[in-house]
Amino acid sequence: MLNFEKRGGMKQTQFDKHTIAWFKIAECVSRGEKERALGVYRLLSHSFNDNAVARQLEADIYLSFEEYDAAIALYRIAMEMYQK
User: Fold this and answer.
1) In the prediction, which pLDDT does 70 show?
2) Taking Cα atoms as reference points, which of 62, 25, 61 lies closest to residue 43?
3) Under a CB-based contact definition with an 8 Å cutoff, are residues 25 and 40 in contact?
4) How far is Cα 20 from Cα 33, in angstroms, rounded to an integer?
5) What are the distances in angstroms from CA 64 to CA 6, 23, 34, 59?
6) How many domains is the chain built from?
7) In Å, what is the CA distance from 67 to each residue of 10, 59, 61, 75?
8) Max alpha carbon distance in the chain (Å)?
């Protein structure tokens, strides 16, 4: 029973870190801190099991800073990954 609680605790801690990272990205975007938002994204993206989701999030960040060319290119990459 104790072993199960430890594993659940680790999963909860990892979930909490992901949640904090998502909010940190949103906070950086709202403050106009593009490089900081991308830095947090890069750390968070290593934990994704799906590269398409990672590219889509990166595109969303660029879009929020009105960098349309970069966002479109990343959305296309994400779309190709989703199709595969």
Assistant:
1) 98
2) 25
3) yes
4) 17
5) 39, 15, 9, 9
6) 1
7) 37, 9, 9, 12
8) 53
Residue with token string 């296309």: 76
What CATH code is carried by the domain that includes residue 36? 1.25.40
Copy the structure tokens of residue 1. 């029973």
> What's the token pair of residue 78?
């994400």
- Interval 17-56: pLDDT, tens: 678 888 999 999 999 999 999 999 999 998 888 999 999 9
Sign of CA dihedral 26, 29, 34, 36: negative
21: its two tokens: 């990272």
Q: Is 54 exposed, middle or buried (0-12, 13-18, 19+ CB in 10 A)?
A: buried
Q: Tell me the residue range of the domain where 68 lies.
A: 2-83
Assign 10 a pLDDT band (cuts: 50, 70, 90): low
